[in-house]
Design goal:
Layout: H1 2-18, H2 22-72, E1 85-91, E2 102-114, E3 129-130, H3 135-145, E4 193-199, E5 205-210, E6 220-225, H4 230-234
Antiparallel strand pairs: 1-2, 2-3, 2-4, 4-5, 5-6
Length: 235
């Protein structure tokens, strides 16, 4: 009887110290790797969406600043003379629909600003810059750079104390937007520039995200405010 008990105890001890087999370890590692990949992918997408929504909120702030300056300062009709225009296409999400869910119209750029401190930008001017020499535009750009609401955006040392509002700078699967013959289409470039645009049909001010490099550089890619392009947020 005692021999049987001793044998059983030895078997139990062997099982306790046996540990995992190689196959079991491989299976566990594979499961952990798959779960980690899923979690990292989900977290990355969540962070990107949060950053893009922050871009939209900053675009709203810029839009309000622009409209305040236009409404309170002496900006004459020359401000709205269309030059350097682009035909653009953007999703419609403001309560009505157009053909295929997109709206196509022409805009021209009044001012722009880099939203990235990437060293690839060479000889770039920081802060808001005008797109052409025009007394109305020059005055507007000066007022914009000195706008009180942008004071908290002048602390980036690399930007020489000028206004700098960061853009999330994601690479997009660009398939449309710049539709002018010969201008080329953006090739999935990174959105890294704020553009203050005016619609040629209504003179409405809009804030767009643009790219500074590649084909179609400096052209508007996504409308951020008003009525943000759904494709920018959901890509």
């Amino acid at each position: 009887m005692m021999n049987n008990v001793n044998k059983m105890m030895k078997d139990i001890r062997r099982r306790k110290v046996r540990g995992f087999t190689l196959i079991e370890l491989i299976v566990v590692i594979a499961i952990v790797s798959v779960l980690s990949a899923i979690l990292v992918s989900g977290l990355t997408k969540y962070i990107e969406k949060a950053q893009k929504r922050a871009d939209v909120e900053n675009a709203r702030m810029i839009y309000e600043a622009v409209n305040f300056i236009v409404a309170t300062e002496n900006v004459d009709d020359n401000f709205y003379i269309p030059k350097n225009g682009f035909t653009v296409e953007t999703t419609v999400n403001d309560g009505y629909t157009k053909e295929n869910g997109y709206e196509r119209y022409r805009v021209y750029t009044v001012a722009r600003m880099y939203g990235s401190t990437d060293i690839k930008h060479k000889n770039q001017d920081w802060g808001w810059t005008g797109t052409e020499s025009n007394k109305s535009r020059d005055k507007f750009v000066d007022l914009l750079n000195n706008f009180e609401g942008f004071e908290n955006y002048k602390h980036n040392k690399m930007c020489e104390g000028k206004v700098f509002i960061k853009m999330s700078c994601h690479k997009h699967r660009q398939t449309k937007k710049l539709l002018d013959p010969g201008s080329g289409k953006p090739d999935g470039s990174i959105t890294d520039k704020w553009l203050i645009c005016v619609r040629s049909d209504t003179n409405a001010i809009e804030i767009w995200a643009g790219n500074s490099q590649g084909r179609g550089a400096n052209g508007p890619m996504y409308r951020l405010w008003p009525n943000p392009d759904n494709e920018y947020i959901t890509e």
